[in-house]
Amino acid sequence: MGQWHDLPQHFRMASWVQELHFPHLVVPVTIDHISTVTPAGPIPVSSGDGLYLSNLDDIVGARVFTPTVYFYRPKNPDSNQKHITKILRHALASVLVPYYPFSGRLRESGNGKLEVFFGLDQGVLMVEAHSTMALANLGDITVPNPAWSPLVYRFPDEEPYKVIDIPLLIAQVTHFSCGGFSLGLRICHCLCDGLGAMQFLDAWAATAKAGTLITNPNPCWDREIFRPRSPPKVKYPHTEFMKIDDGSSLTTTIWQVKPVQKCYRISREFQAHVKTLAQPNDNFPFSTFDAMAAHVWRSWVKALDVKPLDYELRLTFSVNARPKLKNPPLKDGFYGNALCVACAKSSVSELVNGHLSDTIRVVREARLGISEEYLRSTIDHVEVDRPSRLEFGGKLTVTQWTRFSIYESADFGWGRPIYAGPIDLTPTPQVCVFLPEGEVHSSGSMVVMPPFATP
């Protein structure tokens, strides 16, 4: 099977593309204390109350916890570890007043649909831990590493993809011997999309820095705006959710071999070069995402030597629908899921033998095809035919984190994190993530984590 590093003609050009390597290590972590953090003041719900989740919130793809980790350098050798944890805890309790839904739990409300409910002794989870290692012993902490998993708390014997009756936010503060620390977060995707998570994180960080509650903008729940129509009106085929029996070698190849995470730093020069080479014939403007998603899709299919050539493959990616909504527009501060899944389709032959510009065009058309009506149709589609599982047949999914202000949002008073983002994607080997570069004076590079498999 072809491999990414065996394909310089497809993916690498001089120093414009750099493969990043992470060390294989064991991070010893000792859990010191686990406690519950509840809102610091009154909230507008009582025990037994529930909150509506839209079909965008509780679709099967959102029924996951998104794990992220943030590393912070030591401010000084004598920094008080307990003081750091205390500041984070108090700020979190303050932020949970306006963001009170995070203190609830999920339950099924009928017909397989989820809602947030509130009961006694709820709240979010705060875990305090320490490691005998120093941050310097972790190697390059600007590169996502599966070895960091002990820095993000999971319950013993926790079931995969469990979201029912479990804290909706879990925070682990791990102190290292050098005085630095990490913040490992797990946030339930049902409560917020990436932009919503950044809004919450920014409020928590600003509150920690100021010592008083700061929310800008004020959070808005307002999930009822995405209620399905009556009767539902599904106006599109929604191939993004369609179950397809994969008649190609793609899915079999990936799931029969052990997935390995690969990581590349893609320079701004390479991104510009791809756009220059690939201007579609219609001269219609296209985005850097269009170009890079198309390039990665083609390179991935070539590397995996997918057969047969006439088989149709799918590329899916989320599009922020906030700017599309006019009737009515979303209120400022809305932090729920407002994403729509776009789906580009192309045959194996078109991907491996066609021109890059043609692939860019189908990606661009899929992105621009997301409209307010498409979003409403998605909501209605889920209402009448709720997907019960994720479908991977003939599919690559690209997740774009480059649009998130994750580094800027995560300054709790100890400066920007050295790294902010995911840890490992090997459980989902058909997902590719585009990450922002973490340097303060970034050159516009992005970090690409493509799915990869070795025999």
From TrEMBL:
Alphabetized GO MF terms: acyltransferase activity, transferring groups other than amino-acyl groups
Pfam family, one: Transferase
Family note: Belongs to the plant acyltransferase family.
This protein's name: Omega-hydroxypalmitate O-feruloyl transferase
